[in-house]
Amino acid sequence: xxxxxxxxxxxxxxxxxxxxxxxxxxxxxxxxxxxxxxxxxxxxxxxxxxxxxxxxxxxxxxxxxxxxxxxxxxxxxxxxxxxxxxxxxxxxxxxxxxxxxxxxxxxxxxxxxxxxxxxxxxxx
Length: 124
What we know:
Layout (H helix, E strand, L loop, with lengths): L1 E5 L2 E3 L5 E8 L7 E7 L6 E6 L6 E3 L7 E6 L4 E6 L8 E8 L14 E2 L3 E5 L2
Parallel strand pairs: 2-11
Antiparallel strand pairs: 1-3, 3-8, 4-5, 4-9, 5-6, 7-8, 9-10, 9-11
């Protein structure tokens, strides 16, 4: 089982970023995927999650209204777009898989595998 997060980098304030999470070694369509982020010195924070067939999507308060999560099961990929980035969005972004989430999507213990993370740095 592997999850590969990518798409991070140095971006300017106000810009957008599109992160990708590609799964392999398992049936991707059977699992919900969540995105979390961790800034230096802070706890891991739930950003967004998406169920197996897009029927349930959740966003954390910090990105609600300026973020979109989507998935393409044929490509084993989940995407996370975040607009209007601020330095407060600087963090390592991780994707994780969960067999079932629902309202407990923020609970890290519900995820059994994680990707290695991709760093997003928002700075001018």
